[in-house]
Amino acid sequence: MYYKKRRIKKGPIIILVVVVILVIAIIVGINLYKHYTSDEYRLGQAGYSEDEISDILKMDRKYIDYAIEHKYEDDFIALVNEKYFIWKNYNEYIKYIDDVYGDKKVDYSLVVSKINTKTNYDPYTHTEDTDMNMKNSILVNKYYHLASDYAPDDIVEMSNWYSYPGNRIREEVYNAFIEMFNAAKEDGITLIVNSSYRTHDEQEEIYNDYESSQGKAYADKYAARPDYSEHQTGLALDIFTPGAGMANFEETDAFRWLQENSYKYGFILRYPEGKEDITGYSYEAWHYRFLGKDLAKKVYNSGLTYDEYYAYYLEK
């Protein structure tokens, strides 16, 4: 018997091959597109190494986008990884590094602190009105000032049991100090207030006395210009113990007690040692600022000066 040989039609095979090739091409194209548009590739094109890319990809989206869109920057990763980095200050960080460090090793933590607190500028320049809406949290320093006619309306006289004669302070602060005074007494510590609220005119007189006797540079180091003093807020107290003064207060049990306990009653050490470049003042073991218990605890636990804390957590 004769069987007719069946012919295989080539048309469908060709179509199938073409379809397979097209599918492969599409898959390859999609993968290539994903590769060339990926963050990893684009960061590599910007000049970052694999390790640097790995670090950048852990950042927030806005930082990744910035790194992709700009040329490689040596300081970018180190700055963004700083705990108190503020994005709006980035260009100022870079300018400060270029102006101050050059080829020297950069202290990124200091850069961030200086820019955040405006202390990269000379004192009493680039000043602005403090935000009075912050109430007990207001910041007053050499860059943020009070209005010259500012005067709290709740100032009360302090009893000589708690202070040397002639001291006045805001009522809320007074009550907080009395609570702290009593707690210290229970631990065998006696506290006494040496200086408290000052008016604009009183602060001006103090500053002028320093300036006339020691010069402006000395006055600016050890005193505040009128309207730039925390004492004018009615929220600051200079606290000592009987028999101690500025020269030796930090050597007393009273100082050590305040270091461990003042925040519990709403007070913080305002001008700590080693932070003079940030606070703008020499170390003052006796100067305590009232913030209220909740905020004082947060500032205390942060280990920051109030200038730094305000810039990052309150003003930001």
Structural commentary:
- With 316 residues, the protein is of the alpha+beta class.
- The chain folds into 3 domains: 26-72, no CATH class; 78-116, no CATH class; 128-315, 2-Layer Sandwich (Muramoyl-pentapeptide Carboxypeptidase, domain 2).
- 47% of the residues lie in helices and 10% in strands.
- It contains 14 helices and 8 strands.
- It has a 4-stranded antiparallel sheet with strand order 5-6-8-7.
- Helix 9 crosses helix 10 (216-222).
- The mean pLDDT is 92.
- Keywords: Membrane, Transmembrane, Transmembrane helix.
- One of its GO terms (biological process) is proteolysis.
- InterPro entries: DD-CPase-like, VanY-like_core_dom, VanY/YodJ_core_dom, Zn_M74/Hedgehog-like.
- Residues 168-293 form the D-alanyl-D-alanine carboxypeptidase-like core domain.
Task: Characterize this entry briefly.
It comes from Candidatus Coprosoma intestinipullorum. With 316 residues, the chain is an alpha+beta fold.
